[in-house]
From TrEMBL:
PROSITE patterns: GLYCOSYL_HYDROL_F3 (PS00775). This is beta-glucosidase. InterPro entries: Cellulose_deg_GH3, Fn3-like, GH, Glyco_hydro_3_AS, Glyco_hydro_3_C, Glyco_hydro_3_C_sf, Glyco_hydro_3_N, Glyco_hydro_3_N_sf. Pathway: Glycan metabolism; cellulose degradation. Coiled coil: none annotated. It holds the Pfam family Glyco_hydro_3_C. Belongs to the glycosyl hydrolase 3 family. It comes from Neonectria magnoliae. Keywords: Carbohydrate metabolism, Cellulose degradation, Glycoprotein, Glycosidase, Hydrolase, Polysaccharide degradation, Signal. Residues 778-852 form the Fibronectin type III-like domain. Its EC number is 3.2.1.21. It catalyses: Hydrolysis of terminal, non-reducing beta-D-glucosyl residues with release of beta-D-glucose.
């Protein structure tokens, strides 16, 4: 093994039972119960051949080679991050972010962020974005792309990283994840679904040392976990995702990276995940504990305090297997999962060498930056251009996401001949350069992305003012957020006011915001609300354009008579300009829809999601999901609180009708899905502890300072082997070494019981562009209303599927098809630990329309009929 190629480094729920087959819920206790042992992979048909090959390869590795591939090489240790096993032909893997492209490198595309892609409500664009990111990742030699992110789900409107995902709804997140993973993995790149789970706010997410700053505990009851937060993970696993990343925070009391219930129980057993599970960076807090809990890869390999050449795994995992603490079959399973994912994505056949370095922009640089000042130098950046024509899909997404909230007097679209007065620093790229702040940790100029690890370096930023000036002649730009002195406006003059709201990851504080929007709250930054009000006081035609990470409270100005039009342009990435002018000047109609609700006041949401944990000293803070299923529109609808703009809202320049709907039963459901398949072909791993010599560092091997190695000294290795004979590890309560073969009943295939995805009902609806002047694309959103009195408390309506039409000319029609699965009509039953259809063929209603508060067609599951209606399901007080 030893010749470790210059590697790189960048860089815890519910319950289970002590018996193997029965689980009980611990909703009220918020305690993650033990779930052991870590289930082996290889029993899912789609992965059989990859596992067979992986097992063969892993069987040929020495002990130290196996432990070597289960961790990174140390923080800042070069241009890849993971250790190789060269002797047997298993390469180092390059793992890299971001949520919207390839992070910290050159010649790549800055795609619109996840929230923007979600706002398109367009499955095809979500897929195309994934495919383009996958191609760029592959071209740079990234074996494992660290996305998509679906956790946070968007529970807390002020949560820092919601924009990396697709919107505050499990189905929107699930579809976003599925389409992205398909696109990424079709390019042979392993996608990573993250962060498992409950990372709904940034502050106090991470344990930094044992006592001073413990991570908060996301306390989530079993039903809420299944119906909201785990839902997108299930979809990702069903799609065949090759990797998963745990979260920094605790879940129901236990740190995610050593949470056996979460990893062994939910992810690997119930959801049948076959890939490998990695820690989030520097979040591992126990060595043996995390191994037993099902963790497969420690990233970047260091413990909480990095850069001392220490690791909780590597040489320590070697020691722990030699002395019998971590069973050999667990190590064999870890290594096999990693190698199996590599085979599954075809990376054994050919994969580009990594050709960039996140630590420097220079061609030549230190091969191991963390070994400073003694690192050898070499070529680390080859500047490979991978953008191809991806600007096109990036622009299309940025454009199709633009969400028009309001358009009084049909001010939009505007003619390019009108005198335009543009206000706000958000209209123009940061004059210091769009990448002036590392990981975009500032909000200066056009806001194309949030901040943190989910960001990409711009090659260019097509800013709005540049694009406006290209189309219009009479443009006056005031690059200021303070309303300037302006000439007396005429009636023809139009003011366009740019405002922003930013957030990101907790390692940066930006203008007092610690990742989450704790300082700015849901108000526009830089006194944007005052800027809008001042413009509205002067001009009679005001258009507001907001680049924002999430919901804003608009009340200070939304009803002012001159604020006629409002566009939410989300986070458009590099294509902020032309995508916007296409909408402003009317070459296309806006077709984006809100991937979250906009409320009149922050407090219209429950305190448990409004309040951020803002103290973490000594006691682990508790983030208790007391609102249960009722987040975003689910809460507002239950409480009859009228939002300012509802989830799914988005206007067009034209109008659409939804008519001639049909519903057809495709599969006869039963209360429970048919019994799951038993696991077949579970691999049989050896438990034999190898000779300690397999752990000893070869005599002539020259080590690099701080680099992480998996060897022990001869005396340490010998002592560990001796210890195995004399003492026994004190295994956690509930520990068992016997693989479960049938539990849990909700499992059985990737994502859970395969029958959950049986298509139960097919619906169709004819969408017609009823306008005269503009083409446009319509969104069809399908929300399910469970039968009254069905025995389970269910939200008034829940999004279950959506489709977007092609661009329809005036008068043109399209028949749109919607499909509902068994799972879509089920609730998670905590007693049986299974998905239940509470009323088979019951009085479910399926509502179709263009927004959660604009549902004009209803289909009845019991009668298999549909009708148009003016009375929607949601009634506000
Ligand atoms: C921490 C972030 O939480 C995670 O999303 C990211 O992938 C890693 N850092 C690596 O940068």
């Amino acid at each position: 093994m030893g010749v470790a190629k210059l590697a790189l480094a960048l860089l815890h729920v519910v319950a289970v039972a002590s018996t193997p087959t029965v689980r009980r819920a611990t909703a009220s206790e918020y305690k993650a119960l033990p779930y052991y042992p870590a289930p082996f992979g290889g029993w899912v048909d789609e992965w059989t051949s990859s596992y067979a090959k992986a097992k063969k390869l892993v069987d040929s590795m020495t002990l130290a080679e196996k432990t070597n591939i289960t961790a990174g090489t140390g923080l800042f240790m070069g241009y890849v991050q993971h250790n190789a096993s060269d002797r047997v032909g298993f390469p180092q893997l390059c793992l890299n972010d971001a949520a919207n492209g390839v992070r910290q490198t050159d010649n790549v595309t800055v795609f619109p962020d996840g929230i923007t892609a979600g706002a398109t409500f367009d499955k095809n664009l979500l897929y195309q974005r994934g495919a383009a990111i996958g191609k760029e990742a592959r071209g740079k030699g990234v074996n494992v792309w660290l996305g998509p992110s679906v956790g946070p789900l968007g529970r807390k409107p002020k949560g820092g990283r919601n924009w990396e995902g697709f919107g505050a709804d499990p189905v929107l997140q699930a579809v976003g994840a599925r389409q992205t993973i398909k696109g990424i993995q079709e390019q042979g790149v392993i996608a990573t679904i993250k962060h498992l789970i409950g990372n709904e706010q940034e502050m106090y997410r991470r344990q930094t040392t044992d006592v001073v700053s413990p991570a908060y505990s996301a306390n989530i009851d079993d039903r809420t976990l299944h119906e909201l937060y785990l839902w997108p993970f299930a979809e990702a696993v069903r799609t065949g995702v090759g990797a998963a990343m745990t979260a920094y925070n605790r879940v129901n009391g236990t740190t995610s990276s050593e949470n056996s219930y979460l990893i062994n129980g939910l992810l690997k057993d119930e959801l049948g995940f076959q890939g490998f599970v990695m820690t989030d960076w520097l979040s591992q807090i126990t060595g043996v504990g995390s191994a037993l809990a099902g963790m497969d890869m420690s990233m970047p390999g260091d413990p909480l305090i990095p850069l001392f050449g220490n690791s909780l795994w590597m040489h320590e995992l070697t020691r722990a297997t030699l002395n019998g603490s971590v069973p050999m079959d667990r190590l064999n399973d870890m290594a096999t999962r990693i190698v199996a994912s590599w085979y599954q994505l075809g990376q054994d056949r050919s994969f580009p060498e990594v050709n960039f370095d996140t630590n420097t922009k220079n061609a030549v640089g230190p091969l191991y930056p963390a070994a400073w000042p003694n690192s050898p130098q070499g070529t680390v950046n080859k500047f490979v251009a991978v953008q191809a024509d991806h600007d096109k899909v990036a622009r299309q997404i940025a454009q199709d996401a633009i969400t028009m909230l309001k358009n009084k007097d049909e001010l939009l679209p505007i003619s390019a001949d009108r005198p335009l007065y543009v206000f706000g620093t958000g209209a123009q790229a940061n004059s210091d350069g769009p990448n002036a702040c590392a990981d975009r940790n500032c909000n200066k100029g056009t806001l194309g992305q949030g901040w943190g690890s989910g960001t990409v370096d711009y090659m260019y930023l097509d800013d709005p003012i540049g694009a406006i000036k290209e189309e219009a002649e009479k443009v006056t730009f005031y690059n200021t957020d303070k309303f300037p002195s302006v000439p007396k406006p005429t009636e023809d003059d139009v003011a366009i006011v740019f405002i922003t709201s930013d957030s990101g990851e907790n390692q940066y504080t930006v203008e007092g915001n610690h990742g989450d929007r704790d300082a700015s709250r849901l108000n526009a930054w830089h006194n944007g609300d005052a800027l809008v009000k001042a413009a509205a006081a002067k001009y009679t035609n005001v258009i507001v354009v907001a680049h924002t990470v999430g919901p804003l409270v608009l009340e200070e100005w939304i009803d002012l008579p001159s604020v006629k039009s409002v566009l939410i342009a989300h986070l458009p990435g590099q294509e902020a300009g032309k995508s916007l002018t296409n909408v402003l000047f009317g070459s296309v109609s806006p077709s984006g829809h809100l991937p979250y609700s906009i409320t009149h006041a922050e407090d219209d949401m429950p305190a448990s999601v409004v309040d951020l944990i803002d103290s973490g000293f000594i006691d682990p803070p508790q983030d208790t999901y007391s609102e249960g299923l009722y987040i975003d529109y689910r809460w507002l609808n239950k409480e009859k609180i009228r939002p300012r703009y509802a989830f799914g809202h988005g206007l067009s320049y034209t109008n659409f009708s939804y008519t001639k709907a049909t519903i057809k039963k495709v599969t006869q459901l039963d209360t429970y899905p048919p019994s799951r398949q038993d696991k077949e072909g579970v691999l049989d791993y050896s438990q034999d502890i190898p000779d300690y010599q397999e752990a000893v560092k070869p005599k002539d091997f020259k080590t690099i300072w701080r680099y992480l190695y998996s060897w022990l000294s001869e005396s340490d290795a010998k002592a560990a082997a001796e210890k195995a004979k004399t003492s026994k590890y004190n295994y956690p309560d509930g520990y068992s070494a016997t693989q479960k073969t049938v539990s849990p009943r909700a499992g059985g295939a990737q994502g859970g019981n395969a029958a959950l995805w049986d298509e139960a009902y097919h619906l169709s609806v004819v969408v017609t562009n009823t306008g005269k002047d503009f083409s446009g694309k319509a969104s069809v959103q399908a929300y399910v209303q469970f039968p009254d009195g069905n025995g389970y408390d269910t939200p008034v309506i829940q999004l279950r599927d959506f489709e977007k039409t092609a661009e329809l000319a005036p008068g043109e029609k399209e028949e749109v098809k919607i499909s509902l699965t068994r799972k879509d009509l089920s609730v998670w039953d905590v007693k049986t630990q299974d998905w239940v259809v509470p009323e088979v063929d019951g009085a479910y209603k399926v509502w179709l329309g263009g927004a959660s508060d604009d549902l004009t067609v209803v289909c009845y599951v019991d009668e298999l009929s549909c009708e148009e209606t003016t009375k929607g399901p949601v009634v506000y007080a």
